[in-house]
Amino acid sequence: MAKNLTRSPLAPAEFPALPVIEGVTFAAAAAGVKYAGRTDVMMAMLAPGSTVAGVFTRSATRSANVLDCQAKIGGDSDAGAAIVVNSGNSNAFTGKAGDGSVAAICNAVAMATGLPAARVFSSSTGVIGEPLPHDRIIAKIEELMGAQDETALGAAAKAIMTTDTFPKGATRSVEIGGKPVQIAGIAKGSGMIAPDMATMLVYIFTDAKVARADLQALVSRINDWTFNCITVDSDTSTSDTLLMGATGASGVMVTADNAEFEAALFDVMLDLAHQVVRDGEGATKFVTVTVTGALTDADARTHALAIANSPLVKTAIAGEDPNWGRIVMAVGKSGAAADRDKLSIRFGDILVAENGWVASTYREELGAAHMKQPEITISVDLGIGLGAATVWTCDLTHGYISINADYRS
Amino acid sequence: MAKNLTRSPLAPAEFPALPVIEGVTFAAAAAGVKYAGRTDVMMAMLAPGSTVAGVFTRSATRSANVLDCQAKIGGDSDAGAAIVVNSGNSNAFTGKAGDGSVAAICNAVAMATGLPAARVFSSSTGVIGEPLPHDRIIAKIEELMGAQDETALGAAAKAIMTTDTFPKGATRSVEIGGKPVQIAGIAKGSGMIAPDMATMLVYIFTDAKVARADLQALVSRINDWTFNCITVDSDTSTSDTLLMGATGASGVMVTADNAEFEAALFDVMLDLAHQVVRDGEGATKFVTVTVTGALTDADARTHALAIANSPLVKTAIAGEDPNWGRIVMAVGKSGAAADRDKLSIRFGDILVAENGWVASTYREELGAAHMKQPEITISVDLGIGLGAATVWTCDLTHGYISINADYRS
Fold this sequence. Notes:
Two copies of one chain form a homodimer.
Chain A: E1 24-29, E2 41-46, E3 51-56, H1 64-72, E4 81-89, H2 95-113, E5 120-127, H3 134-138, H4 141-146, H5 153-159, E6 168-176, E7 179-188, E8 201-206, E9 209-210, H6 212-225, E10 230-231, E11 241-246, E12 253-254, H7 259-278, E13 286-294, H8 297-309, H9 311-318, H10 325-333, E14 344-347, E15 350-354, E16 357-358, H11 364-371, E17 375-381, E18 387-394, H12 398-404
Parallel strand pairs in A: 4-5, 8-11, 9-12, 10-18, 13-17
Antiparallel strand pairs in A: 1-2, 2-4, 3-11, 6-7, 7-8, 13-18, 14-15, 14-17, 15-16
Helix pairs in contact in A: 6-7, 8-10
């Protein structure tokens, strides 16, 4: 971490007890990529027969690791797989040297494990534009292999943190055909978080047996309604990566249209996405923005993101000010269709505005009381169609400025 | 003003000496719209034969005043014209009552002045969603008419301020066919400032004789390269209005293709636009973002605005941190075309990055020294085309949070 940050007031009470996912093991190590005295590399190893799927940032300046993962992700293989992740340096905008660092790490892991290099996936997160000291990571591969442990997913969650104030994990189990299937995942992220591009770093594992194409279809579909629906600061990372591995160790076959599995995976991904928002840099409020009655779902999302990304809405929430005029402003600027005189606004269950003006039943005290809560709900009904969307965000506080005005220093 | 704000460190040394524009007079009054003890209404009166043009916010939730101005702006008339502006209340999202307030004010001014109501233009700026106490404004019309003064444009500039920390004025004179023509304007604005929609409140006057259609063509064209190229916080006002009146008192005819007049008007509008940025809420740095080498001018503007609106770029500038990686991030997320390995970045004249990585000649001390200046220049060359754009913004500081986390309270 750049500095000792106070644990977010919106953090879950505790890190969840993550189950063993048969067929995958983990280890973390302190390689000193940027800071000494903390774990900053994690390696996951998946058993032969595992499938791997992923979604990635759509940034035009994405990192060398992301480009390498994207080149590898569509391939089928019966070999196992490895995932190596470091924090402290994102290896983004590091030119040809960055490509070289990825190749050096993946080749070294391939050599040490006997895996084909095409089955070694790497991620890097941290500062942009500085050369990745990949030798320090390679020097830890033997230690990481020796320490592989099926219960170390929590340690891996800690090793990938940057400005995160708490490690993020989530798990669900689901019965499919009378047999239990486990899903567990970890994530990191708290700033440079914006949807429409994928996510931050997320690694999810299951012991279900899922064909690669089905796993990819599930992950892509659910991603669009979870990680692609969160925003902390409207800024999109050059490193966003979600990788999911299915080991098949449970023997339970799952296809892309399995509703129980999809529901459980959705829960895990939404849980992790919400934890990223809850650890938004400087966040003191967790905000749900729901837009209904839009012309289309896409329009609803455009409006919801305009609200969720508006600095004036986010600072009003930080100040516990039920300043609904700024929500009107954000709807107005979004560019999507709206009719000033048909939209209504609610804080929680409180009707604030309708018919183009403040509701006759609304009292400022009601809105102010809702704003004092740590969890805020803003609902806007546009009254012109059936489109709907929900996104999640946090407030914009002095803490965000403090963290980001000297992150590198 | 919501509270006593310290004058922006980026403010001009002093308010400019504005010339008399023959054919237009001004007055300001204290109507107590929201706060007592300050002027908060201004009225300008234009002589018969004046033409009026305007550009307005494209917000879907624009104010009742904006809708009324837009309905009136295309009309030709030999009558004079009046412009009435109040601060303290924006009369936006005030439903049918808001339309009624505009009609009440315009009709009262028409009655008192003998002008047709279609020649009375009104603007309101301030809090959204509260009923405009238009009776307080109407009660001041007689006083405003009696105090009309050709030298009172500066007093008008003060009356329209909200969170502005200094009044904004600009002037140029230009010789056309050997005869002098004067242009002078005022503006207000410091938050809820984003381009692509028009501007904040701006009123410009000239004694040139310009046909209405020509005046509109000039204002619209120049607006696109001045007010539409500034952003403080990416949030767009529901009230943005620019009105320009040409009295013709100089006897000098000007058409839309008059290069000297266009250059002078451009200077006035850019000067006012820059002053709005210099008074950006909490601003400590004035930032010029220039993008060249894009596929198209539109792409260049998209990239420039992605940089100028990025909270992470703006907080880095606030922290005087030459964190060019965040500029790479912003270019990457903008959605416009870019090639990671072809873009170069400069701070002032300092080459920071090229060929997909930090420049070999770059030293962090050089970037840090540039960042310590109150005026920062960020130049990005994408290296893939001929498109170019420049936008202006400010940094994002604790001051912005302080101002906006309790503006209404």
